[in-house]
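User: Hey, quick favor. My workstation is busy. Could you predict this chain's structure for me?
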Amino acid sequence: MSAWRFLPEGTEQLAADETALWQGRPTTGGLARRFLHVRAITGYFAVLAVWNLFAAHSDGMRASDAMVAAFWVVIPAVGAAAILYAVAWIFAMTTHYMITDKRIIMQIGTALPIILSLPLSKIGSAGMNLQRDGTGDITVAFNSEDQLAYLLLWPHARPWRFKRAEPMLRSIRDARGVAAILAKALMAASTEPAIAPVLADAGHRQHDAEPAMAVA
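Assistant: No problem, here it is.
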């Protein structure tokens, strides 16, 4: 049996014997900064503005004219940042994560929304990437040969894990608390006696952190 199943949109209602433990969605700011890299892009434009200012000054332009030359670079920078934040907001508003005592439910996709149901019993490990503001990413890996396609999960997939894609709860609030909820749910759902979830501090800004929770 596959480790996941596709559910029609709007049918993510829980079973009678299923309990919701947590639900949420990505933060817009987190997606813009860490997924769409808005800081790097605006930084690039800032370098261009400084370069234009320096070049104009070196060419003998008056200070006012040099400032105008630099200002024309600021306009596309603001536009690019606004577009990236708008895209991040769309991604956030069209995403819904839920952890229950039986599975992880991911409602993802903008133009073509889908709902993924990931049974906890099929999850072998989970990792946490914690940020300084308390938000973070939680990834899960299957303990079987069943795999999901990276492009199907994107952008809700751990970066650079193409062959064995790992679903990711991206930029969620109180990532440490959610990790604790997931660890307890994994313990309860496991049929193995030797379960050792470890809520280790994954550190700050570790974009490829080792699993912070492990199911052995």
